[in-house]
Amino acid sequence: MKLALAQIDMRLGDIEGVCARIGDQAELASKQGAHLLCTPAPLFGGMQPTMLIDYANYEHEVVRSLRDLAARVEPLHIDCLVPAVIALDQVPYLEVFLLREGRVSPLRSMMSLRTGSLDASTWDPPVFDVAGSRVAVVLDLERDIPQLPRGCDVALYIQMNGFNAYNEATCGVASVADGYFSGDAARGGVWIACMAPVGAYDETVYTGGSFVMDESGDVVAAAPCFEECLLVQDVSRGTPVAALDARDLPRFDREEWLWEALRLHVRDAVSASGRARVVVPLEGDLPTSLTAVLAVDALGPRNVVGVAFERAEVFTPRQEALECERMELIRALAANLNIRLVERAQGDVSRWMDRDVPARDVGRLRVGIDALYLADVAHEMGACTLSALTKTDAALAPAAALSAGAALALAAPFGDVYLSSLEFLARYRNRRSAVIPASLVTLNAVEDRMGQILACAVDACPDDPVYTQRIAQLLAGLEPAQVDGVLEAHVDRNEVLEDVPLYRSAPESAALLLMLVRRGEGARRSLPSTPIVSARSFAERAWPHMLGWSDLGRDGEEPLCVMDLAREGIKRFETLGEEHGERVRGEILGLLGGLLGLSPEQQQELMSEDGQQRMRENMERFESGLREMLNAAGAQHEGPHPGEAAPGQGLRGYPFFSQN
Fold it and tell me: How far apart are CA 69 and CA 56, in angstroms?
């Protein structure tokens, strides 16, 4: 069998366009002799379709377009495997459609109907034959490989999870060099074909890197990462095939893969907006500079415009020198990137606001006016805006980001990347070409920006001087790595206060950071779209914005849970039942003892455990003797009359007291 993997990037939800592109790929694959073409999973509705699948005509449109596609590829004599998410009882359900001989067959639903278990929570690998080979569709190699029926030749793995910078398995062929996938092929004794998507689908990003691996775990064909490709490969189980040199396979590098994934997201997000240009605010700091470089890599220098604002609050020679240095850094960056730079001078904010005296909140007003300037430049040039906020900004100071116009931006490329990681990204990018000024690719630049974020977080606290001063003191001595370490543990890994890295050395500071994260939930709802590149983004970690609780740990106490309360309640009821039974038995024995004339000591002896045991033994001997007597009497009887039972016959096999 010859297999083709169509690693294509299409706009999310363009159903007719997607089917047309699949038809084009089928024609190309057919010319190369392919028998089966597989397409990526998120093309139609993405892997997080939310309410899209609930629309009445969405499923109708998917099925109608697939039928038209099946009719188109029928003369090509090639089968197509097209996964798509639909709704099953209002639950997202990944269906795998097989287009063969002009028909559309939903493999998973058909298999479930045959077994009588149509349930979105279950998954059995569909298996079908193509050109003499048996192909199984799997979504989780570790789970599905042991379930494959005997005789399967190829496990067609459809990748669903988007890129995660801390999970190498989401990077396709780049993870094979570090031992991923090879063990699954050897354990199952089958070939593995990985269909890895490429491109951005809303917040989810895919890196590509589809590949075909033989049963010994060697890669025999691989598609490039971060670009489209049609990969065609002969699959012949049990036949030796020349493998690719392991040294030629791409290797995972976190900074490189993260940069390229963000570049793909910027490119696809801007394209989906219907515009070609972006406007980036330049502040002479690391985040805005790196955002401009990323935009240039994604769109080209002609489609990127930088906007810089000369600050009006310059009163001392040192402030003037710092301002001149900042503007020179901005101009140097624009020259290195060969982008257009628009400079704007700030006026008197009090005059803009029609005030007689300077405003106390002049800084906040200034950034708000800068945001209006930025939006005006974008409108004038028919461009969209990119925000330079990081995940650290979103965690601690989302309100300040909104004041600076983040809500007007199309996207925030680094919104799921912590501030301290930007230094390493900048170093990686400067190794390719040193476009970022060297003074910005330092720990000092990260510390300066972290100080601004923490200052904004303090300003957003209640207007209580004592309270505000205490917060500022707790945050002042923290290093960027410490702050981001707490945030990463709490947000990405859901660690409680006692388990975050800073707790042992500065428990109050760690608790304060968790409180600031909780308080910013409402403002985070208005932040721009962010590509998901971590274990858990803020888009996935949505809390009630009115929440007044943070997980501060148990302070050494044992964990409490509802099931323990339930077990305690059942045990208490059982104990009460035993006590009640003991009390009733005591009353009955006391009554019998009084009737029989027993002394209090004899009654106590009778109620004891030993007395109860002797009573049971005597009763058993009495019952046994009575049964033998009745059986003997029945044996001596001459025989019953017709229709009459023999004496003792109805009592055999039953306890004595059950007959009374």
Answer: 21
Region for residue 116 given its phi and psi (left: phi exceeds 0; alpha: psi -120 to 50; beta: otherwise): left
In sequence order, the 6+-apart residues with CB closer than 8 A to the CB of 634 are 646, 647, 648, 649
In the chain, the largest separation of any two C-alpha atoms, in whole Å, equals: 133
State both tokens at 415.
């919104």
Helix (H) or strand (E) holding 307: strand 304-310
pLDDT less than 70: residues of the chain:
49-50, 116-123, 346-364, 550-553, 581-582, 585-587, 589-590, 592-599, 601-609, 611-612, 615-616, 619, 622, 633-660
CA 328 to chain centroid, in Å, comes to: 42
CA of 134: how far to CAs of 30, 114, 149, 603, in Å?
A: 20, 19, 10, 81
Name the residue type at position 634: G
Element (H, E) at 450: helix 443-459
Which of 487, 542, 537 shows the shortest CA–CA distance to 515? 487
The pLDDT, as a whole number, for residue 603 is 65
pLDDT at 646: 47
Tokens at 569, concatenated:
């309640």
Q: Which pLDDT score, from 0 to 100, does residue 462 have?
A: 73
Residues 6+ apart with CB under 8 A from 455: none
Closest of 245, 159, 166, 258 to residue 209, by C-alpha: 159
Q: Strand 2-7's sheet: what is its strand order?
A: 103-106, 91-100, 79-88, 36-38, 2-7, 229-234
What local confidence, expressed as pLDDT, does residue 645 receive? 47
Tokens representing 404 are 């600076």
Short-list 110, 108, 128, CA closest to 120: 108
DSSP SS3 for 279: strand
Residue 275: HSE in the Cβ half-sphere, 13 Å Cα cutoff: 19
Write the secondary structure of 31-54 as one string of H (helix), E (strand) and C (coil): HCCCCEEECCCCCCCCCCCHHHHH
CA–CA separation, 520 and 456 (whole Å): 12
Q: Any residues with CB less than 8 A from the CB of 401 and at least 6 apart, and which?
A: 387, 389, 393, 394, 523, 527
Residue 340 pairs in a beta bridge with: 305
Q: How many whole angstroms separate alpha carbon 642 and alpha carbon 49? A: 81
Identify the DSSP state of 224: P
- Amino acid, res. 158: I
Whole-number Å distance between alpha carbons of 498 and 486: 11
How high is the pLDDT of residue 451?
A: 94
The torsion of the CA quartet 512, 514, 517, 522, rounded to 10 degrees, works out to -100
Residues 6 or more apart whose CB falls under 8 angstroms from that of 219 comprise 173, 176, 211, 212, 213, 243, 244, 246, 249
* DSSP H or E segment with residue 16: helix 15-31
Q: How many Å from the N-terminal Cα to the C-terminal Cα in the chain?
A: 81
- Distance, in Å, from the CA atom of 25 to the CA atom of 42, rounded to the nearest integer, reads 17
Question: In the numeric block, which tokens belong to residue 524?
Answer: 């985070």
The rounded distance, in Å, linking the Cα atoms of 606 and 561 is: 44
The string over 223-232, giving b where at least 16 C-beta atoms fall within 10 Å of a residue's C-beta and e elsewhere, is bbbbebbbbb
| DSSP code per residue over 144-166 | HGGGPPTT--EEEEE--S--BTT
Which stretch of DSSP H or E encloses residue 297? helix 286-299
